[in-house]
Design a protein that fits this description.
By secondary structure, this protein is mainly alpha-helical. Among the domains are: 124 residues, Methane Monooxygenase Hydroxylase, Chain G, domain 1 (Up-down Bundle), CATH 1.20.58.1030; 47 residues, Ribosomal Protein L9, domain 1 (3-Layer(aba) Sandwich), CATH 3.40.5.50. The strands form 2 sheets. It has a 3-stranded antiparallel beta sheet. 9% of the residues are buried.
């Protein structure tokens, strides 16, 4: 095994849609080749005065990195072809395993089994049957295991003495759980009953003495700098404000827009 052989395998794999035949020990041979390069680099580093400045050490490092990149590219190219071959085999189309490495043979068999099992599950679902849960999935077992602690806890709660539960309740509830009731106000006598109309409605003097807030009549001309949309002015008019509109607004509405840089005041 050497770098030239690896590059030749990569070139053939790229140029073919089908899998080229490789020996079963291909990946193992590449691994052994890279290990030998690393050992050789270690020996070269021991001989060199400055391993980081040694031409031989740097050459071996480059060869190791190149070999790792090439073999990874070969695998990625081949694994897609293995998946395609496995899908054909699962569909009943003959597909041989010749030319696969030992690792690829294992992958091929696993893929065929998974695809066939999944197809069977889909057909069962389409037929209205409940898919079977494999024992190894742990779904049914975990459900049963989860229910056992809950059942044991329920049984323990049922057997717990009543006085123990009461003691727990006494510890958790505050001693003054019920606040004292406020003293009842004495009911007014017939002479003291207030006039319902006088309580519900203020007198004319009170209405006259309460000044209503006055709105300023001041208005400000502004240019809208970004879309604001519809607003209701303090003058009870609706303004639909769009960017570049020039409009005169009540001062109370114009000021917030100017502060938020949504409008600029025009003199």
């Amino acid at each position: 095994m050497n770098l030239d052989e690896l590059r030749s395998v990569q070139s053939k794999e790229r140029s073919k849609d089908s899998l080229q035949h490789l020996r079963e020990s291909f990946y193992a041979d590449v691994g052994e080749y890279i290990r030998d390069l690393r050992e050789e680099r270690e020996r070269a580093a021991e001989r060199a005065d400055d391993p980081f400045d040694s031409a031989e050490v740097n050459r071996l490092t480059d060869e190791i990195q190149t070999a790792e990149e090439v073999v990874e590219a070969i695998y990625e190219r081949r694994v897609g072809k293995v998946v395609k071959r496995a899908s054909l085999a699962a569909a009943g189309i003959p597909a041989d395993e010749e030319g696969l490495t030992s690792e690829e043979q294992t992958l091929f068999a696993d893929l065929v089994g998974c695809i066939e099992a999944n197809k069977s599950t889909v057909l069962d679902v389409l037929a209205g049957e409940e898919p079977e849960i494999e024992a190894g999935s742990g779904t049914a077992e975990s459900t049963a295991d989860d229910s056992e602690p809950a059942a044991s806890e329920s049984a323990g709660s049922a057997d717990r003495p009543h006085d123990e539960a009461a003691a727990v309740a006494d510890d958790t509830e505050p001693s003054d759980a019920k606040p004292p009731e406020p003293p009842e106000s004495p009911e007014p006598t017939a002479d003291e009953e207030p006039d319902a109309q006088s309580e519900a409605e203020p007198s004319a003097d009170e209405t006259a003495s309460t000044p209503e807030p006055a709105l300023s009549d001041e208005r400000t001309m502004v240019r809208i700098t970004r879309d604001v949309g519809a607003i209701l002015g303090v003058d009870e008019r609706e303004y639909d404000l769009t960017s570049e509109d020039v409009v005169t607004l009540p001062a109370e509405n114009a000021a917030p827009l100017i502060e938020r840089d949504a409008a600029e005041k025009l003199e």
